[in-house]
From TrEMBL:
It comes from Zavarzinia compransoris. It comes from the Bacteria. This is Tat pathway signal sequence domain protein.
Length: 109
């Protein structure tokens, strides 16, 4: 997670994603749980983050409607809902994810 940016009625999250070894990811969807500063669940969202070409770093952003960025204490990657290449499901996709954060909110799995 690289940035959380307040919007009029949302919090915009920026994720920097790197797929160094491939294959090209054609479908990646994550189930995310947002916690506040007291580690109480604020909300659950699903985000699509594809495509992720092999050997490329990509920035993906999404708006979390009705969310105050200042209330986000941490974000849990709860589940990988989809992780596919052109050849089908990518094995061990969850193990390939190495979360980190450059903002005050922690990103973890």
């Amino acid at each position: 997670m690289n940035k959380l940016e307040p919007q009029a009625e949302a919090c915009r999250a920026y994720l920097v994603l790197n797929n160094p070894a491939g294959p090209d990811i054609t479908d990646l969807k994550l189930d995310l749980i947002l916690f506040n500063q007291d580690q109480v669940i604020e909300r659950r969202i699903a985000v699509g983050l594809s495509p992720l070409p092999a050997g490329k770093t990509t920035v993906k952003l999404f708006d979390i409607q009705g969310q105050d960025c200042a209330r986000v204490g941490s974000v849990l990657i709860n589940e990988v809902m989809a992780c596919n290449s052109t050849e089908g499901a990518v094995p061990d996709c969850t193990k390939r994810i190495a979360p980190s954060s450059r903002v005050g909110a922690k990103l973890f799995k």
